[in-house]
Design brief:
The structure is a single chain. This protein is α+β, with helices and mostly antiparallel strands. Helices cover about 30% and strands about 40% of the residues. It folds into two domains: about 35 residues; about 130 residues, Immunoglobulins (Immunoglobulin-like, Sandwich). Strand 8 and strand 9 form a beta hairpin. The N terminus and C terminus are likely disordered.
Length: about 170
């Protein structure tokens, strides 16, 4: 009889511990579900060593957290579209946290495949007659995600336009 009580008591402790962990996890996630999205902007771009015909850049992202909960991450992924076409992508296994009401800078190496660069060059040359090129603006969309932590993946999007240099600024 005491063995049955002990077994029943151990099972009850395990079930109670599981519920406690589940409740704490959901409580931590609830703060982010109702929170504001992360603000991500490009803080800098530096060329890095490339291989073959590809171009590579180190993109510095400033990640701002306007929420009351810290966001932890253990990986970053980026995709950059120019003029509605895929242009570059990158990943990093960098890990860290974005403190509550704080910010951090994350480095991600971005690769531009040779064919994507050639495709964009031809698109820009062909679009010189279009309204986009005449206005000097090229639309971009930067999509990414911070992976990991208790809350899982945090996705972000930044979009806008890049300004082309004025034709009068070209060197002879």
């Amino acid at each position: 009889m005491s063995f049955v009580r002990m077994l029943f008591s151990a099972r009850l402790c395990r079930v109670g511990a599981l519920w406690a962990v589940l409740a704490l996890t959901l409580n931590g996630c609830a703060g982010l579900f109702g929170g504001d999205p992360l603000r991500v902007s490009v803080a800098g771009i530096e060329p890095i060593e490339s291989q073959g015909l590809e171009m590579r850049f180190n993109v510095k992202l400033r990640v701002q957290n306007p929420n009351e909960s810290t966001v932890s991450f253990n990986g970053v992924s980026l995709d950059l579209d120019l003029n509605g076409k895929p242009f570059a992508s990158g990943v990093s296994d960098q890990s860290g946290t974005v403190p509550r009401f704080g910010e951090t800078v994350v480095n991600v190496p971005l690769t531009v495949p040779a064919f994507a660069a050639v495709r964009q060059a031809f698109a820009f040359a062909g679009a010189m007659q279009g309204s986009t090129a005449q206005s000097g603006q090229i639309p971009y969309i930067l999509r990414g995600k911070l992976a990991g932590g208790l809350t899982g993946t945090t996705r972000f999007v930044d979009q806008g336009s890049l300004s082309l240099p004025a034709a009068g600024m070209a060197l002879p």
